[in-house]
Amino acid sequence: MLAVDREPRTVAVASLNTAALPGHLPPIAQRAAEICRFLESSDHDVINLQEVWGRRYLDLFRRALPSYPFVAWRAGIAGQPCGGLATFSRLPIGQVHYTAFRASRPNAGGALFRLGMRARSALHGALTVALPSARAVVGNAHLVANLDGDWSADNRHHRIQRDQITILHQALTRARAATGAELAILSGDLNVASTSPLYPLITDNGAWRDPFAATDPPTFHVEYLPPGATGQRIDYLLVAGDEQRHRVLECGLILGEPVELPDGRSHLSDHFGLAGTITLG
Asked: Is 132 within a domain?
């Protein structure tokens, strides 16, 4: 009898900032139903979600994603997912770790700004999830936002975002070492424009491949930016591992088109989702 190969040949990862806080979009309960309907019908193995800020939101997604039985998150002091991060997987998961960005510090701006940034940093972080059958680690991250729209090195957000990118890479390095993973995939809302001087740090000067670099699509809907602002790529899907064994077969934006909801026609998030399929050797 022929043996059945139960190890996956590829891993397909999707990522989306769900924009779960009340704001200019319809309630998350309406949008989550459409988001999950799309994901349930997709061939994505792993989904990284950001801004799942409460346990109620987490349960909402869990109920609507029954084909993703493995859910990685870490509980905060109120029982909420730390950092608003949750990873859903069709593949069995192994070690799960969460690293907060509370150690990052701004070095510019007024006292109120610095105090606010320190508080916000404590609520943001990175989740790392091992996928033993794929010999891979997946990272899910959300950095604090730069609301100034200024990506220069002189901007008051530059230092704290630089620190958080460093902490993020350290968390992925530890996860890979702890699991012996040959492949690492990182995605999420890094809130740093690809035109920023911080971009080389995001890719660790080429240690991480950026399959969206050639097209550089904006990942935030310009409709929700201040008048005159330009859309930027602030969400990423990055790959680290042997380039021949772990090729990116395809990548693209998802969940970007508006749909009809009970409260009217709307985008499902103010962000575009990202997806990519990587070979496992």
From this structure: yes
Asked whether the beta carbons of 198 and 255 are under 8 A apart, the reply is no
Count Cβ atoms below 10 Å from residue 1 Cβ, excluding itself: 3
* Residue 137 belongs to domain with CATH number: 3.60.10.10
6-34, pLDDT tens digit by residue?
567 999 999 999 997 777 899 999 999 99
Exposure string of 174-197, with b = 16+ CB inside 10 Å and e = fewer, is: ebbeebebbbbbbbbbbbbbbebe
**How many independent structural domains does the chain possess?**
1
**Long-range Cβ contact pairs of 251-257 (< 8 A, separation 24 or more):** 251/211, 251/212, 251/275, 251/276, 251/277, 252/276, 253/217, 253/219, 254/14, 254/16, 254/38, 255/16, 255/35, 255/38, 256/221
Residue 153's φ and ψ, nearest 5 degrees, are -70, -15
In this prediction the pTM is: 0.94
Is residue 16 classed as helix, strand or coil in its secondary structure? strand
Rounded CA-CA distance 267/245 in Å is 37
> H-type helices in 76-217, by residue range?
111-122, 158-179, 199-202
Residue type, 203: T
Give the pLDDT mean for 97-115.
Answer: 93
Query: Is residue 132 helix, strand or coil?
Result: helix
